[in-house]
Amino acid sequence: MTQQSLVSRRDFLQGSLAVSALAVASPVLAACGAESPGSSNTITVGAIADKTGAFATYGAPTIQGMNLAVEEINAAGGVLGKDIKLKFLDGKTDVAVWTSNARELLRDPSITTLMNGGASNQREAYRAMVTPAKKMLFYNHQYEGGLCDKNVFSTGIVPSQQVKPLVEHMIEQYGPKMYVLAADYNYGHIATDLTKKFAKAAGGQVIASEFFPLDVSDFGTTVAKIQRTRPDFIISHLVGNDHLNFHRQMASTGLNKTLWTGAPTFGLGNEQFKLGPADSQGILSALNYYEEIDTPESKDFVAKAKAKYPDVQYVNSEIATSYTAWMLWAAAVEKAGSTDLDKVTKVLEAGLTVKGPEGALTMDGKTHQLSHNISFAKVNGSGRFEIIKTIENLVAEPSCDLIANPNQHTQLVS
C-alpha cells in the first residue's frame, strides 16, 4: 500500500478528511470485551446496529460503513496514534435488546462514545441514559429530526433537509394535493406532521394520511382509497420489507405509471433491487447519497467499498452516512487532542467540516446536526438510480441552540 492511499493524521488535525483508497485488512467489527481504562494502545468505541432481524436491511450497510472507516483510520495510524477498537453489539431489531446493549456499553469505563444507527424508537429507548453516563452519542441514521441533546450529534438526514425540498419539488411538478402514508411509530408520525407543515408552507395540502404497523403487507384498501381521492402525488414514509408491497400493489393496478410517489426512505435498504424496474416506476427518492453520483469523491468511495465488500450489490446512503460519521468523530478527537467529552464537543460545535462521499459536510454547532447534499432520483429501466436534481449543503432548520442552552436533552419537533 502506498502512502497516498492512506488518510493522514494531518488531515484529521485540519478537520477535513480526504476520501482515500481503502487499506484492505482483516475485519475489525466483532463483539469484544471491554478493555482496561488505562490502555495506552487503543481507543474503545461502542457501537450497536441491527445485524439481524427485520431492520438488518439497514443495519448491514451501517456496519459495512463502520468497518470501512475504522480499518481506514487504523491503517493511517489511528486516532491520537492509537488504534480504534470496536465493542460491537447486535440490536437484533428489538427495542429491549437495544436498551440492554446500550446499558452495557454505557457502563463500560473504557468507552467514551457510542456510534449507533437504528430506528428512532430504538434510539429513544436508551438516549436518556447517555447524559448521566457522561458519554457522547453519534446517531448515524436518517430520522425525523428535532433532537436537541447536548450529548448527541446527528449525522443522518432529517426532514427539513430531505422531505421539505422533496415536497416543494413535487408540488411544483405535479400539483398541491398529496396523500401521505407512514410507518406507525415515532418516525412515521413526526415525519407526517412535518410533511403537513412543509406542504402548507409551499401552498400544498395533505388530503389524507394513514399509518401502518411494520408487519402490514396488504395495501389493497389503501390503493383503492388513493384511486378514489385522486391526489396529485403521494408521500411515503413507509419502511421495511413488508411495506414494499405498497409499491407492488400500486404497480399491479398500473397507477404508478401516472401517479408519482415521493419516498424519502426508498433506497436506504436497496429497495430498488428488491422491487425491480417495473414496480419501482413512479417512485422519486430523496437521499444524501447514491452510488451513481458522478463526483471524484463518490467514485473513489464506491471503488474502495466494493474492493472491501465485493459481494455488495450497491453502495448506498447508509454506508456513506456511517463512514462519514466515523471520519467526523476521528477528526474531532484528533483536533481536540483527547476523547474527553467536553473537549470533543467544543471542537464539533465550532463547526467542524469533514470530506466524504457526498463532498464537504459541516456540523452545525447549535443543532448538532450535520449538513447534507440531497439528490432526487428515480429508478431507470436498468434498475439503477437516475439523478434528477441535487441541492448542495442543506443545513437542517434550527430547532434549538445547544451552545446557548447546554443543559437541553430533549427531542423537539416544530
Automatic annotation (TrEMBL):
<dbReference type="InterPro" id="IPR006311">
    <property type="entry name" value="TAT_signal"/>
</dbReference>
<protein>
    <submittedName>
        <fullName>Urea ABC transporter</fullName>
    </submittedName>
</protein>
<dbReference type="Pfam" id="PF13433">
    <property type="entry name" value="Peripla_BP_5"/>
</dbReference>
<feature type="signal peptide">
    <location>
        <begin position="1"/>
        <end position="30"/>
    </location>
</feature>
<dbReference type="InterPro" id="IPR028082">
    <property type="entry name" value="Peripla_BP_I"/>
</dbReference>
<dbReference type="GO" id="GO:0006865">
    <property type="term" value="P:amino acid transport"/>
</dbReference>
<keyword id="KW-0732">Signal</keyword>
<dbReference type="InterPro" id="IPR000709">
    <property type="entry name" value="Leu_Ile_Val-bd"/>
</dbReference>
